[in-house]
Specification:
alpha/beta; TIM Barrel; 11 helices; 19 strands
Amino acid sequence: MARLFEARFYEARPDGSVVCTLCPHDCHIPEGGRGACGVRYNRGGRLYTLVYDRVIAREVNPIEKKPFFHFLPGSYAYSISTVGCSLRCAYCQNWEISQWPKEHLPKHVASGAADRAVCPRLEALQGEVPGEYVTPETIVAAALASGCQSVSYTFTEPTIFYELAYDTAVLARERGLKNNFVTNGYINPEPLREIATVLDAANVDLKFFSEESYRRVSRARLAPILEAIRLYHALGVWVEVTTLVVPGLNDSEAELTAIAEFICSVSPAIPWHVSRFYPAWHMLDRPITEVSSLRRAREIGLKAGLKYVYEGNIPGEGGENTYCPRCRHLLIERYGFHVRQNRIRDGRCPDCGETIDGVGMSGTGPAA
């Protein structure tokens, strides 16, 4: 049975309710209820996390799978996740685990409106969160034993398992490992500032540049995500941005240009991954993204002034390679999630000397 661990970032109210301040939902949770993520629970006027000690997935992945192309290229990340998510994206690829708490609990519990008289089994329900028992120590030990260079908090939204992520990241950094978030960016400034002290990189999903689309498709707001990208970058966390290009939803030239121009306004060195959409979950009525659409998105990003734009989910098409932003020579050749060659030396292009932005970018073999 899952144990209860007191959550961080909440305010207790005199009536026994709490306000969770971890993410911009700012959920007002009554006694016995849960927040929008489904894994933060009010018991006795205190907020608890139900996923501090259990993960639903942990595996070794190439860092390129996250995707990170300018953060320790060619390395491996020990990747962990719990169930739950702060968003409810209609096309979620990992909905079986991200939406598990909302799909498997009574609606009045998952919505944070539970009442003990209505749901007498509520105390038992808290133990039904699936996953393997873990501690920060066991996660870090496994990461070191597997030869990984970083721990990746990924697959679902790491913000909702903040306490486990933070404690693991502190220990990982002490043991010489780096930490990265693969995140929807829906986090309030105070917890972001704290996690940034032990976080080395964040890949943020910027799904749309439309408040209406965020509300309708993901049940979130755009503005806090833009602010999170700005703040991660300002605090020295290496940032990459991913946009899943969905036909007829966010693939207009105007919206892609707006996304590219925003990223460039934060820093032209931020890599932008424009990735291919595959129908999933509640969005099965749209076609797979055409390769030509990703090519057009990449051109839009480069025209906006971004130095590095990548086409994702289309291995072998060349859009996943890194080129020098000055001389345009090939620097890192990739196929899917794997690096075939890395010609960068001491963080620079071996042909023209241009600095190549990122963390741990240099290859290990002789220059081509």
